[in-house]
Amino acid sequence: MRALVSRLLTHSFVDGPGNRAVIFVQGCQIACLYCHNPQTQQVCNGCGLCVAGCPGGALAPGAPGGPLAWDPAQCLGCDQCITVCPNSADPRALSYSPQDLLAWLRPLSRFVRGVTVSGGEPMLQADFLAEFFPLVHGEGLSTMIETNGLVEWAAYERILPWLDGALVDLKVWESDRHRTLTGMGNERLLENLRHLAAAGKLTEVRMPVIPGYSDTAEHVRAAAGFLAGLDPAIPVKLLRFRPHGTTGPAAGWTAPEEELMAELVDVARGAGLTTVSRSR
Ligand code: SF4
Ligand code: SF4
Questions:
Q1: pTM
Q2: Comparing C-alpha atoms, which of 196, 274, 270, 199 is closest to residue 232?
Q3: Which of 98, 116, 99, 120 is closest to 21 using CA atoms?
Q4: Which of 2, 130, 181, 214 has the least CB density, counted as fewest CB within 10 Å?
Q5: Is the CB of 233 under 6 A from ligand 2?
Q6: 51 and 135: one domain?
């Protein structure tokens, strides 16, 4: 199997426990209105609209119907291609085998605790993870995923023996609002949270505080109560929405006030969770 990857990061302290290498895969099955990396949502279809505007001459037609060919040596890193792409794609995403990514990871293994696969949505490439994660364990490193929790449970089951933990988003409690914000209801997410908690693989649940969607005490109380029912000690982090990097209407939304974030942390604790934090 091969994975389509949009970016590799050698060090991160915000993508799971300790210092971690991070692999950002290309492609997601939802399209959040507040997505901070919309260019990772789709796979380039080779339509060619971005080729003429590339100032480095780094883009050229690829195989018929497939993604463009990208020459990193010519690329100026200007992001013009992702700015003009109407398909929320990135022509610079590259395909890697498990062995390719192991070769990238090995020199880092003295400096990181493990690897986190983020996205896009990593569970859309579960067959790749089922090959890659055993190799990561062979290096003495841990494995994590950052997932929207919306892929069928059978995919998570395939990687469970080699998965050390999952960082999962619970974006909106009410399914209809979740659908408006992301394009999908949240029933499968709630079911997967139950399964991951029962398997002891739920490392952290992130709850973004989005104006008009998830910024009320009622919302946080309901979601936190559900999580506390699974395990009161699940680490939960409330993420303050930031408009920076978003496109469309979300760019005009306002970040929640500090006072509201502090109040919502108290609400989550009051609902029974013992380990609640928040972003600044
Ligand atoms: S990156 Fe977007 S605009 Fe460029 S060829 Fe691919 S789909 Fe078309
Ligand atoms: S970032 Fe995109 S548009 Fe800019 S030089 Fe590289 S390939 Fe071309």
A1: 0.93
A2: 274
A3: 116
A4: 2
A5: no
A6: no
